[in-house]
Amino acid sequence: MPIFKVYGDSSFQDCKRASEEAVVIIMENLKAKLFSDSEPVELRAEAVLLLKQLGVPVENLKDKLLKKLDRFLIDFELQSSIHEFVEAVRALWVIFPDSEKQLSELARDLMTKHFKTVEDCIKRRVSSEDLLEMLRIIWINTNALEEVLPEAMLPSFSLEAAHVAIKQYISTMFSHLLHDISETLTRVQTKPKEGVRAESTLQASLEGSKKAVLQGSMDVLLDFRRLLDDNIELLVKLRDFIVDWVQEGFQNFFRMLDNHFLTLSGRNKSVSLDHGTRDGSQGEKVFSGLVLVLAQLSVFVEQNAIPRITEEIAASFSGGGVRGYEYGPAFIPGEICRMFRSAGEKFLHLYVNIKTQKISNLLRKRFTTPNWVKHKEPREVHMFVDLLLQELGAIGTEVQQILPHGIRKHRRSDSNGSTASSRSNPMREDRITRSNTQRARSQLLETHLAKLFKQKMEIFTKVDYTQESVTSTIVKLCLKSLQEFVRLQTFNRSGFQQIQLDIQFLKSPLKEIVEDEAVIDFLLDEVIVASAERCLDPIPLEAAILDKLIQAKLGKSKEKTAVSLVE
Length: 567
What we know:
InterPro entries: Vps51 (IPR014812)
Function: Acts as component of the GARP complex that is involved in retrograde transport from early and late endosomes to the trans-Golgi network (TGN).
Order of helices and strands: HHHHHHHHHHHHHHHHHHHHH
Number of strands: 0
Family: Belongs to the VPS51 family.
Structural class: mainly alpha
GO biological process, one term: protein transport
Keywords: Golgi apparatus, Lipid transport, Protein transport, Transport
Mean pLDDT: 79
């Protein structure tokens, strides 16, 4: 008190001491009243005024109350009641009218914490129902705080945060969809369990992938539709943005899906180096069955998934336009269809190339290993024929599971003039026999070329998505490779006869798996012609000997088949 400051050192010393002790007690009581949540706000505000009159620095007291409120935020959960926090803010503002800035920051911190919880849930794959519930709570809390703290402009703050969260949710849903499709596809690369056929795995993978693409997209659209249909003010204000994000999201999703298909197939530059081998074959490291699945799945995306998704987007997600008309439409189905049409063709050709390279390696080893000039008289069909047919059988098994049947053409018997049959065409046999001279060789080649132009035969046609087309293309390419390998060697009579025997045996099984027998006849005939051209003494086997060796091989094959069935 002023009087004690003047006379406190004299006879008023005891009074001064007693007065100071009383003031301390009063200040402690006032502080206790200030920090008590049970006291009315008016009394707590009056306590602050009295403390100011007593010379107490109230800024420190305000900081303590703000820290108390801050600690409250640490333990505050999204599902907690906002009422206690709102009342604390209301009281603090009444008690300390100059605390607006600090209280606004605390309120924004609360909203930030709310949306951080939302973002964490989105990363863990939250359902649209749960997301809507969280947004509803946040908007209720925003409005409650807006009533007591309008200067904080929390609705605008929450709208901006919701803008980020919803966009993240849509993007994350597409990422999860891509992951689900990838999971289904990568099962193709794993070894099937015991008792499960590899081809069944291929078929299951294709069907599972189709479902993952189409049904997964429909499920995602349903989740997004729930966001549009809800009447939360936050979402109503973001509706046009959501429409644009969904359309842009699908456009980007299918681009990423196309790129992911390329990565799985090994066609991306970043992975193709790892998938190549010294001999150029990708078959060992890129599972050919997966490539075939990707080819057919790309067709499904183009012809089935995109039209269905486009229809749903047009029905439920039209409008938008927030992104600006100068950027063009967000979702362009025609572009996506062209992308997957091109991808499907690439994968189909890649499958053909992988299989052709593998068989070409087999043929290369066959024709570069022996000394053909010193070849012994043929006694049986060479084992490479079995290996070749085994590879073609594996190809047939794969394509039967993934591709539909096509149309067989040029079905005919050898009696109608097969160019490669020495049994049905004795004139052909005579020409080969006389080709030991240069003149005969030239005549043989000219006759062969004349036949090609006369028949107007189309050897290599476009590869279609059918079993017969893919298998036929692989067989044609392999026979052309066989012809080239033959042209690089020089044969004695026995070597030439061995090739004649092997080619004759291949005729029947190859015709069973191709769509155009005439082309196969022609290509087999070209191999014989090439070997005759490279032979020192091209005299073919007699028909009787040829039949005997072929029948012996067929008999052995039947025995092996019978034994395998018994086992």
